[in-house]
Design goal:
single chain; 379 residues; TIM Barrel; eight-stranded parallel beta barrel; 13 strands; 37% helix
Length: 379
């Protein structure tokens, strides 16, 4: 190691090293497995990317609730490396329904951990004031963020919802007795106007206040220490300043993400350069802040483009040395003939998806070993 004799240079060196660790994982009491996952995701993002699929184990194209099945596994022989679940069933339902949902998700999460995979959690949070939906409906929805923040009329009810989430986080113990780590991604696509927490219905100050309270209450009051917290707007940004407009501060975010369907072929529109530009912003910010980064949602509904996986998605992901831990495509509906985002046997993009799967850059569940320990390696 080089010896630094100049005091000024030595101080700068110390500050540089301190800065490298300053904005690492926000929960200093995170479980050993959660800390290991965080570090291993950072390592993976240097040279690879994990493939994820929403609701992959719960149902797929033409089926539901079948043990150890996913459409991705039916095509490749491996489950996705990242499995998406949702906490939408944890509020706005009866106690019995919530308990049933929790039991199903608990098995999903623990089974994924046992196999060596990773769980990410979105939250289509039913409006806690007006009820009915997580979407904004002009005739019935209420701008609820100002009401659930600290001091708001529905703050206590919001704390009850968070208690349900915390109870679930404390329940997901695997056979080895360890709590399963999860990537928790609340209030996604907040820069849009389709959810009740969207920018049109929520002030910047209220959004940040609710985010900060949510994270602090879960980890500091309710003792949840197996979450990695992800922040993911949609694509309505063109600069770092735009992206950070509602950023709740480095002490409240572990992962920087982005949901992007519009640049990847939706309605026939492809903007590869635009997707790369925005992912470059996310990746660079994450490197600068020593955070994780991911393409937290994307996909092309019905996948009519036979070479979409390699000629669109992979081409973007492998560009400009982006450092992204994972990419997740949306769900395959069990009954709709057209609402699917991952291939299934016989779907026209299967040959190209096999190429995507076989590319050394992409990692699926079968590629991972010991991702929750410091002995992690790629098989």
């Amino acid at each position: 190691m080089k010896i630094i004799r100049n005091k000024k240079n030595a101080l700068l060196f110390i500050l540089m090293i301190a800065g490298h660790f300053l904005f690492a994982q926000i929960d200093k009491k995170a479980t050993k497995e959660t800390k290991a996952l965080y570090e291993n995701l950072k390592t993976i993002s240097k040279k690879h990317i994990l493939f994820g699929h929403q609701h992959a184990l719960e149902y797929g194209h033409g089926w539901s609730n079948e043990r150890d099945r996913s459409d991705v596994k039916s095509v490749t022989g491996s489950h996705p490396a990242v499995i998406g679940i949702d906490f939408s069933g944890f509020s706005g339902h009866s106690k019995e329904e919530i308990e049933k949902t929790a039991a199903i998700l608990k098995k999903n999460v623990t089974d994924t951990y046992e196999r060596g995979g990773i769980t990410t959690v979105s939250w289509h949070f039913i409006n806690p004031v007006s009820g009915n939906s997580f979407y904004w409906k002009d005739s019935t929805s209420v701008a609820a963020m100002s009401l659930i923040k600290k001091g708001g009329a529905y703050h206590e009810q919001y704390k009850d919802v968070l208690k349900t989430i915390a109870d679930f986080a404390h329940s997901v113990k695997a056979k080895d007795g360890k709590l399963v780590p999860m990537i928790f991604r609340p209030y996604h696509e907040f820069d849009g106007d389709w959810f009740w927490w969207g920018k049109k219905f929520t002030s910047r100050e209220d959004f940040i206040a609710v985010w900060q309270f949510t994270v602090s209450y879960l980890k500091d009051i309710l003792g949840v220490h197996n979450f990695i917290y992800a922040f993911s707007p949609d694509v309505r940004f063109n600069s770092e300043n735009d992206y950070l407009e509602r950023y709740p501060d480095d002490d409240y975010v572990d992962m920087l993400g982005m949901d992007d369907y519009g640049d990847f072929g939706r309605d026939g529109n492809y903007d590869i350069s635009g997707a790369i530009k925005k992912l470059r912003i996310v990746s660079d910010l994450a490197v600068k802040k020593n955070k994780l980064a991911a393409l937290t949602e994307t996909g092309l509904e019905s996948i009519p483009n036979e070479t979409w996986w390699t000629q669109t998605l992979l081409k973007v992901l492998k560009s400009e040395n982006l450092e992204l831990a994972y990419v997740l495509v949306w769900r395959n509906d069990s009954t709709s003939p057209t609402h699917f985002y991952a291939p299934f046997p016989g779907q026209i993009s299967v040959p190209d998806f096999i190429k995507f799967y076989n590319d050394p850059y992409t990692l699926f569940e079968n590629d991972l070993k010991n991702v929750y320990t410091n002995k992690f390696r790629i098989k």
